[in-house]
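Training component of the fellowship. As part of building independent skills, the fellow (R.M.) carried out the full modelling exercise for a liganded target. The chosen ligand was NAP. The inputs are recorded below so that the supervisory panel can assess the work.
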Amino acid sequence: MTTIAKAYVATSATEPLQPGIIERRDPGESEVRIAIKFVGICHSDIHTARGDWAGVKYPVVVGHEISGVVEAVGARVKRYAVGDRVGVGCFVDSCRECVNCLAGEEQHCLAGSISTYNSIGRDGLPTAGGYSTSIVVDESYVLGIPVGISLQAAAPLLCAGITMYSPLRSWGAGPGKRVAIIGMGGLGHMGVKIAAALGAEVTVLSQSLKKMEDALSLGAEGYYATSDPATFEVLRGRFDLIINTVSADIDVDEYLSLLAVGGTMVMVGLPAKPLGLRTWSLAGFRRNLAGSKMGGIRQTQEMLDFCAAHGLGAEVEVIRASGINDAFDRVLASDVRYRFVIDAGTF
Ligand code: NAP
Ligand code: ZN
Ligand code: ZN
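Fellow's submitted model of the complex:
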């Protein structure tokens, strides 16, 4: 038995997304079916739909910033009941046995976690993401959305929120730490909010001064345009932690020069091309270069609870499904404030 869901489908790297129909299996014993209410447009959806990354299998339904309401539960489901407000992020399963899964780092599952889209699920079928009206997921990979965060503001937390929260916690963002966020987009604006809520001194490094007022109102204390060469002189050796959210290539050496002694730059933006850098940029000032990918289920729930406790959600522009292709173009032009969220009632 299956349920029919409406969806928006990428059929090739060059065709616009178009409306279609997909089948969702009935929930297994430990699975829930979620009526999707909102889904965020993450830049990873665009990288995937437009074939920037290797290994995309078309047709694909993207979307991994999902919020909705439980509408059916399997016989052995314990954590959720029909009517609960829930979310699904970037992965929907993992081996559950390896050292990383057991440590709550399912995103780094040794067997490979099963992505919400463009993966093969346990049922042997391709996974289809949140640009659709429903999804079926094992309860262990479903998050509870606390009261106090609206479903539209919560959706982007499932990827953008946790992708920033995790490295900010891992590298100790807090009082007395100078943190810079490169790129004021979907990830970047959540990074500003979360780092400020953790008590760090936050600076935004953006291509232009256009987003300055917004950044300061979200909690940043400093804001600099990277198009101005003086920025790199003024800020040299300043930051304990830099998080790079840029979806395109950046001059890594230039940004490493902004780290203090022993400071760390964490790469979360995922451009397709390999990095180039001079090892001298790391040797001088004993700097570190690191990366980070999403966060585990336990930490994602912690992040949602943290956001609720601090009154944080994403700044969203809600669109209809028919506006997805235009929204993709606006994201690519860095023209979004600060996350497009699709109203799933319009698929
Ligand atoms: P986004 O909303 O498009 O934000 C990216 C920001 O980077 C833009 O708003 C812009 O900020 C800046 N930017 C874009 N092009 C640039 C360029 N050519 N030079 C300098 N700055 C540029 O994207 P997002 O959804 O936040 O995602 C960002 C990246 O993170 C993507 O590559 C995505 O695939 C990746 N990602 C990684 C993870 C992970 O787990 N590691 C999770 C989610 C997403 P300004 O306007 O302020 O300059
Ligand atoms: Zn994402
Ligand atoms: Zn595993």
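The panel noted the following from the submitted structure. The chain has eleven helices and 17 strands. The mean pLDDT is 97.
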